[in-house]
């Protein structure tokens, strides 16, 4: 089985990528991390000796795929190959794939027993899924490939399943499907509404964009087609490894007893979002601005990992995953490289490069048809404000709350909800927001009642004013 080495400038980032990847499969390939340098003052960097030792640790006759983030990681990996025993070096492949998406795809593919070249190809194709979701026009050719099924013989066996998973066949259930169907002596195709994908490719499965309520069909033919169909049916009945709430077949009617209304004083929270401080730079300032950017990103990633740990203690691992994902997104090497390109080519300062890339991402989310994905633009702006705060040396803004209150605001970022999860906050009322946002999901997990889309509430409510939040009528009465 092919094993993986993750090389990054940040030890925390590499360990986070490895942890996320290992959750995709059970008893899968081995992952070694070679990240950071042994310098407490300046720990960001790569070390060729660490890379060499990591490769030796997971060396296997099937080969080792090395995943890397920024430029000098490649230099360290190339130096490591020169230091290795030639016999070991000959079965090592350096991947040009994106670190996060590529590693996830590589681990799933390697764990299915694929060859080193197949694992590398799957890793390199990982970015196409994100591209198709954020910019469908740019990846039309990739989407058309999924529409073309290989010849499915008339004798093929088929099994259909209506997906009930709340978020469809996202990366974790897709990985479970790929792993469950690996090893069978059979040809297979997965179909959704006339679009086809290989069940062994997490990238292609994700490209099908299977949502809750979609019908998924497995076609299989060959010596072990029956066994493959049986494995698919068993996994599908287990909802691809995800626990779903039990739904009774019988619907009973009755009268709802509404929760008690909350009476408390208003605290109006009006944080000032940091603006982009644009400034042209000279060629001699490019390296300095890149360093500022990387330091802000590293500090933000550290904070997000700490926040994920706090959230896990308060609300559990599922809610903590929100901030772990924030950390992975901000540390994504493709994103960082795009920011660095803006600094180098357009001679933008660090703030401008960060702002333009993340706001472009937020706009792409807002343009999506899927309402669940569309509200993720709030998460991107949350990350942006955190990184800007480090670049501009600003402290986070939070209200001082000493008495029970109903917190009123235009909107709240997910990280602000966690910061405000305290006994005195009895309820939250937002002028904007969505019930699908991570802010609302976190508030619900923290047992803080929240009302969203209360138009003009921040215009009419004032701090100290008494108010009643009535759940039966979904109204806030100001007195």
TrEMBL record:
It comes from the Bacteria. Residues 156-243 form the HPr domain. It holds the Pfam family PTS-HPr. The keyword Kinase does not apply. The keyword Repressor does not apply. Residues 1-134 form the PTS EIIA type-4 domain. Homodimer. The dihydroxyacetone kinase complex is composed of a homodimer of DhaM, a homodimer of DhaK and the subunit DhaL. It is an enzyme of class 2 (transferase). CDD domains: PTS-HPr_like (cd00367). It catalyses: dihydroxyacetone + phosphoenolpyruvate = dihydroxyacetone phosphate + pyruvate. PROSITE patterns: PTS_EIIA_TYPE_4, PTS_HPR_DOM, PTS_HPR_HIS. Its EC number is 2.7.1.121. Keywords: Transferase. One of its GO terms (molecular function) is phosphoenolpyruvate-glycerone phosphotransferase activity. This is phosphoenolpyruvate--glycerone phosphotransferase. GO terms for cellular component: membrane. The lineage of its organism: Bacteria, Pseudomonadati, Pseudomonadota, Gammaproteobacteria, Enterobacterales. Component of the dihydroxyacetone kinase complex, which is responsible for the phosphoenolpyruvate (PEP)-dependent phosphorylation of dihydroxyacetone. DhaM serves as the phosphoryl donor. Is phosphorylated by phosphoenolpyruvate in an EI- and HPr-dependent reaction, and a phosphorelay system on histidine residues finally leads to phosphoryl transfer to DhaL and dihydroxyacetone. Gene3D superfamilies: HPr-like, Phosphohistidine domain, Phosphotransferase system, mannose-type IIA component, PtsI, HPr-binding domain. It comes from Rouxiella aceris. Belongs to the PEP-utilizing enzyme family. NCBIfam families: dha_pts (TIGR02364), PRK11377.1 (NF008478), PTS_HPr_family (TIGR01003). GO terms for biological process: glycerol catabolic process; phosphoenolpyruvate-dependent sugar phosphotransferase system.
